[in-house]
Amino acid sequence: MKAHLTQVQGMKFEARVEGSPAIVLHAAQKDEPYEGPSPMQATLLAAMGCTASDIVWILTKQRVPFTKLEIEGEAERAKEEPKVFTRIHLHYRVYGDGVKEAAVKRAIDLSTEKYCSVGIMLRRGGVAWQNTWELLPPK
Q1: Quick one: what percent of the chain has pLDDT higher than 70?
Q2: pLDDT digits (tens, 9 = 90+) for 70-101
Q3: Is 92 exposed, middle or buried (0-12, 13-18, 19+ CB in 10 A)?
Q4: Which CATH fold would you assign to the domain 39-136?
Q5: Domain boundaries in the chain?
């Protein structure tokens, strides 16, 4: 994997992985509006995107009749430098009729324990991890 990052202005950067479109990372200062996620925010989003891809793939492969997936993420950081993540909580909302809780739990467990490289890397680094979920009617 190859990537390139260029400073745009101040603490705003354009980042690109070879072969993909650019994204903006912005470690905005206190009075400055964000123009993109900060690197730590992007890390949380990366974990959420990683597990979402796994969940959709697993549920689709198992022919689970879900219609939509949403994930709410919450992260806590250390109070002192380095302000690493200390805890992440992901709450999954799976929409659909006839979705079995066991199938959702299995998909989340497989993602958490086997497939989601980003989440596994964070947990190996000491981040406490919590998953919760709910099943909802189609949206």
Answers
A1: 100
A2: 999 999 999 999 999 999 999 999 999 999 99
A3: buried
A4: GMP Synthetase; Chain A, domain 3 (3.30.300)
A5: 1-36, 39-136
